[in-house]
Amino acid sequence: xxxxxxxxxxxxxxxxxxxxxxxxxxxxxxxxxxxxxxxxxxxxxxxxxxxxxxxxxxxxxxxxxxxxxxxxxxxxxxxxxxxxxxxxxxxxxxxxxxxxxxxxxxxxxxxxxxxxxxxxxxxxxxxxxxxxxxxxxxxxxxxxxxxxxxxxxxxxxxxxxxxxxxxxxxxxxxxxxxxxxxxxxxxxxxxxxxxxxxxxxxxxxxxxxxxxxxx
Length: 215
Description:
The chain is of the alpha/beta class. Helix content is 42%, strand content 21%.
């Protein structure tokens, strides 16, 4: 049982289902800020997407919308729970699909998981990534999963004390909702168990990294 559940009598996700207005607005604001910087720093990651991308747990589509604007040839779909996509703003560049990422992910050339996996424990991350792997083609025809999340210590010696302290404090914060921030060896174990064969980590100027995950 998470600390959030002890305090409120329900999980974070149950609370968001009852009234997710503030949560969805916060996630959309984070996506608008984060994606602007990521596309400037690491836009080449998305340039390799051949034709379609599904943003898993993408909320109201702010991240997918940024990708669609930057790369008009990419057809972007947003997958989230039905009650979330039901209140999403209309966007003619996006397709919204109501569903559960633990059950099925729509087929696409690439899958995006932005700030999703740190919300879940090891076993759940493996389940989610297995669904993602089922959704994409083989690596030799461009299949990839793109993860935007924290990799503790990924910046190495270039990481200042403030960044290190922030990583630790954010890990403590995530524990409140039963989430966890991970070091590379913890991510690697998840990837192997989910059936992936290779990955590449690209640190960014912020605390989050881009992980390209290959089947």
